[in-house]
Amino acid sequence: MATITETYAKHPPEKIALQTLHEKITYRTWNERVCQTANWLDSLNLSNHTVGFLLPNGTPFLLLFTGASICRVDFRSLRP
């Protein structure tokens, strides 16, 4: 089974990966943002911890979820 980053790597970097009402994000930019998010989570030393984030649906949630899956934080989305 391919990892998330391996799946992204198969796409041309300048193609649109995510489009919202406010922005278009290429695969290159998406990968950079996900890596930054994963590095930030790693810097918090959260391994072996359960972490919860409450975010609206959208780009910030997707970045955090994808970044957490890369650095293997036990990430669970919570609903209000």
UniProtKB/TrEMBL annotation:
* Pfam families (UniProt xref): AMP-binding (PF00501)
Against InterPro entries, the record matches this protein to: AMP-dep_synth/lig_dom (IPR000873), ANL_N_sf (IPR042099)
Start and end residues of each AMP-dependent synthetase/ligase domain:
7-68
Task: State the source organism's domain of life.
Answer: Bacteria
| SUPFAM superfamilies for this protein | Acetyl-CoA synthetase-like (SSF56801)
Query: What is this protein's record name?
Result: AMP-binding protein
State the organism of origin: Neobacillus pocheonensis
